[in-house]
Amino acid sequence: MAAAGVAPLLPGLMPATAAQAAPTGRPGFPLVAGGTAVDLFVDPADDPAVLRAAGDLQADVERVSGVRPRLLHTLPERAEHLVVVGTIGASPAVDRLITRRRLDVARVQGRWEASVTQVVDRPLPGVDRALVIAGSDRRGTVYGVYDTSERMGVSPWYWWADVPVEHRDTVTLPAGPLKRYEPSVRYRGIFVNDEQNLTTWSRRTQEPDKNIGPRTYERIFELLLRLKANYLWPAMHPYSDFFNEHRENPELADRYGIVVGSSHPEALLRNGVHEWQPWAEEHKNADGTLPLYDYTVNPAVISDYWRARARQNAGYESSWTLGMRGLHDSALETKYATTIPEKVAVMNDIIADQRRILAEEVGAAATPQIFIPYKEVLELYNAGVQVPDDVTLIWPDDNHGNMRQLPDAAERRRAGGNGIYYHLSYWGRPRSYLWLDTTQLSKVWQELRRVYDHQADRMWIFNVGDIKSIETGLSFCMDMAWDVDRWGPDDVGEFLVAWAGRQFGRRHGPEIAAIRTEYYRLAAERRPEFIDRGVFSTVHHGDEAGRRMAAYGRLLERTRRLGARLPEACRDAYYELVEYPVHGAYSMNLKYYWADRNALAVRQGRGTGTNRYADLAEAAHAEEQAITRRYNAEIAGGKWDGIVNPYPSQIPKAPGRPSVTRVPRQETSGLGVAAEGNDTGADRPPSFSSLTRDRRFVDVFNTGFLPLDWTAEASHPWIRLSTAGGRLTEQARVWVEVDWARAPEGTHTPSVTFTGAGRSVEVPLRVVNEGERARRRARGFVEAHGYVSLDAAHFERRVPRGGAHWRVVRGLGRRTAAVEAVPAAAPPITEDIAARAPELRYRVLFSSTGTFPVTVFRLPSLDERGRRRLAVALDDQPVAVLSGQAVATGNRGDAWARNVEEGVEKLTATITVTEPGEHVLRLFMVDPAIAVDQIVVDTGGLPASYLAPPESYHPVFNPAPVTEPVLEEPAAPGR
């Protein structure tokens, strides 16, 4: 195996320096050769987690080669080759090599979770060569073991995503040292949450007598370690067994080397959903009533409740959550503390009590201790809750991937440090997203980089829902948590190439990465879980909704083509990781597209077409159900029964089956016409510009059910039509274009006349031909159709100032890239902005004059202790400061809710164009870490739509604007 080519894809691995490298030509280590596998040795006195992981390496060698090596616990008297697995300080064999300076442990020994893998000649008496895997601590050794598995070709997702293991008769590893240095983040893990699907699957396929029990957790623990994670918040909802219900669970976690903590409502490892009620039953009040989970009412009972768990789990490596919230992720209840200062005092008492319990029951091993200012607790923390200096502050996002607040300078100096709780999956307001992995990796990168730059590096915990469907996003987060500098703003996409190559072979990595990138981009426009009626326009900008569905359709076709070329062994994994997410997102959007077309047909008074769109909407819903059934019942032989369900019960505001309208059949026919930009008729004439060279549509439709004949005729020969007539049952979409080589210069108002069923309808057009010379002379973005639309990453000049600048982040936002003001901790610029703030400049050619709205599409980052501001100006005119939403309210229907649903916040100011011609549009940073996606200037012709209009003509960035194709309707029966 050419393992040297695999190693660079592993997260967090640092190749040896030139001085450390083995001599050129040194032979590799034959792990398997000639039908024989090299024996594995691990000292029986090493940590149980290491002994167990060595067993996984034994199994992985067999997965690759079909040959199972022996696992030895005593050194052989004679061996040509041997694999030695051991922890520094716990393995005499490894320690002997270090003492004799045969093993290079520089930057490994004494570090957190570090390891070295190295071939050593004559390491031990009677052993000719050994592959030594040595860790600085127990998890360091475990990670070194799993690095070796990956180098052999065993993916961390071999079980959880059915990634095939390619068979190899010969397995050879490079001789040179391979080091895994300390991680960027000390504790890295997941929260299994809103786990209804995982619970259903676990009960059906793993443990029929449990709702997520030890057998399932064994699989989760192994996955975490293979991803180089070390931390877990276990499942906690009513439909799951609580973690400590099965005492094997914490014992297993300790045997695997996993640190177990608990989420924000689960103080001191107590699961209030399941455990409080029985405790209350056993500790009734003197009058026989049950005590309330309210520290202002029953402090002693609650304290004893916490103490019992601290005593029970004192012997395990745990993380202890301090503070208090209500039962089952509800707000803190304080009957006798009604004001904020009173609640702050209560929280301080709670923390002091919990610290006392941990000191008495667990002692010095009660670390790490964490405090999570989630939702209402953040308000209390900011109002004065005193968190001891050695406690780690865990900062939450807004549940939608935007960090709410980050540590200030004083908090960054805390001995306990800082961490984050970040959602890749969420149940709650304003909308849930539990079904698919839909958060752009560049968005994750942007926020996590911002987090790390604020020194929140002690603990990163990711809400992953049911685990399945979050495979790609979780892998990326774990890679970043280990080596935050591995990926930069220009190469997040390279992670996808590398990751896909590890699952499906390098030759397929770039294509799968391109598919996933477009999938994430479309989700950035609107998550499929957030789709609703009437979001995307079906009449403006060339059928905005239809263009989006065409993009989805092309993506699905591309996905299927690649899937058909993959080996049969890869098909299940490909369906789970690539095809189902694309197809599912497509179907969810498609049924709402057809439902919107159905509603439009009703407004237009259509006949048979109305019912046709209703049929298409319901067919798309049926298709979504069918592919989900395939996932659950057929993929991997039904292994994932119950794991996928777009609609777990009680999801707030989940899209489902859109309602549609049908009309009774009538034996009539009639001609209807709707030009682009109009629900019906042509009151808004379609606009054409020689700069953008557009095409516009006119829908010709039947208001009845009987076929009719129709014709279309243009008033001028340089107006071109895609079709000039025919037999009409439901609809014909006529595309109108201009032959610019024949059209005279100037502004013209030609028309197209549609005739049929005894009726004629004239559709006026507006054509502006500025000539080829004007097109060639344009140097920037050019106004046309009453607006200028530009991508923020398409700037002409970047002006850094004061140590801050704007950088381009590829794959971020609704287009191909966005711009972000960095560094994240830079001071705000609030005075003399035009001279002191970092700036982007855009050259714009205006033909109109006046005062116009300019809208900046910013990504909705937050700062609940600060502001979210940027500024715009035209030329040397005064700067206009725009203030964005800084606070996550958690309410439906307000600005924050709209921002997270749409993925952008639209901030609008005005600029004044005093004379036609070239001008410079300027964008300034006011607050750092602001990201901007698009900018639109409305000069009087911009229709309302969800997305920004297509980008304006630019000789460099958009020299040949092409109207994107629109989803084609399936042919109707008999058409």
From TrEMBL:
Sorted UniProt keywords: Hydrolase, Signal
Cleavable signal peptide: 1-21
Pfam families in the record: GH115_C, Glyco_hydro_115
Membrane spanning stretches: none
Gylcosyl hydrolase 115 C-terminal domain boundaries: 780-951
Gene Ontology MF terms: hydrolase activity
Record's keyword annotation contains Glycoprotein: no
Top-rank lineage group of the source organism: Bacteria
Protein name: Glycosyl hydrolase 115 family protein
